[in-house]
Amino acid sequence: MTMELSTLPARRLTVDELIRMAEVGIIDESERVELVDGALVGMSPEGLDHFHVTTTLSNRLTRLYPEGHMIASNTTLPIGEHAYLEPDVFVVDPPSRELTWPAPADVILVVEVARTSVAWDRGGKALAYACWGAETYWVVDLVADEVVVHTSPGVNGYRAVRSHRGDEAIPLPRLVISLTPAEVLRPG
């Protein structure tokens, strides 16, 4: 007799439980997983283009945002009790001296670079970031060669979504500076 997994009762994990599982070695620190609505989800491997775009964008944002802003790359971001995502890059207002996770109002920009996860990044992940309250969310779509900018978050998702290609200006949140998709997608 086999049972469909979806018919079995499931227990949602919390961010604190996930962190503890990593601390005691249940989850290896090299495992690429995210916590989505309390469930562990494996992340797809990153290609060379993903690495170059993420690294170049992180370096550019570090140069463009004033000193004190935190530019995080390939690290986790808890966005609720049952969600612990790993955006490729995110920008945080100058943090307080208190050691806490960034609050939605402090996160200026969240970026996901995608090749195989485009549908997830533009769908479920966009909704999760919007519900949490991330001000601006970008999906750098390596397949379509575009940057999709999400703004005006709400409980039903982002109310404004716009695709940018080529030399169109993409304003950087809270700055009077813009980048173009070409600058984001072409390392160097």
Describe the structure.
It is a single chain. The chain starts with 14 loop residues before the first helix and ends with a helix. Helices cover 24% and strands 29% of the residues. The protein has a single domain (46-185), classed as Alpha-Beta Complex (tt1808, chain A). The chain has five helices and twelve strands. The protein has a six-stranded mixed beta sheet. The protein is an alpha+beta fold and 188 residues long. The mean pLDDT is 89. The chain is globular and about 50 Å long.
The CATH H-level superfamily is: tt1808, chain A
Radius of gyration: 17 Å
Beta strands, count: 12
The residue ranges in which pLDDT falls below 50 over 5 or more consecutive positions are: none
CATH topology: tt1808, chain A
Biggest sheet strand order reads 3-6-7-8-9-10
Helix-and-strand structural type: alpha+beta
Whole-number tally of structural domains: 1
Give helix % range. Answer: 10-25%
Distance between the termini: 57 Å
Element layout with pairings:
Elements: H1 15-23, E1 33-36, E2 39-42, H2 48-64, E3 70-73, E4 77-78, E5 84-85, E6 89-92, E7 107-114, H3 118-122, H4 124-132, E8 136-141, E9 146-154, E10 157-164, E11 170-171, E12 178-179, H5 181-185
Parallel strand pairs: 7-8
Antiparallel strand pairs: 1-2, 3-6, 4-5, 6-7, 8-9, 9-10, 11-12
Q: What's the quick description here?
A:
The chain is 24% helix and 29% strand.
List keywords for this structure.
two-stranded antiparallel sheet, about 30% strand, about 190 residues, 6-stranded mixed β-sheet, 5 helices, 12 strands, tt1808, chain A, alpha+beta
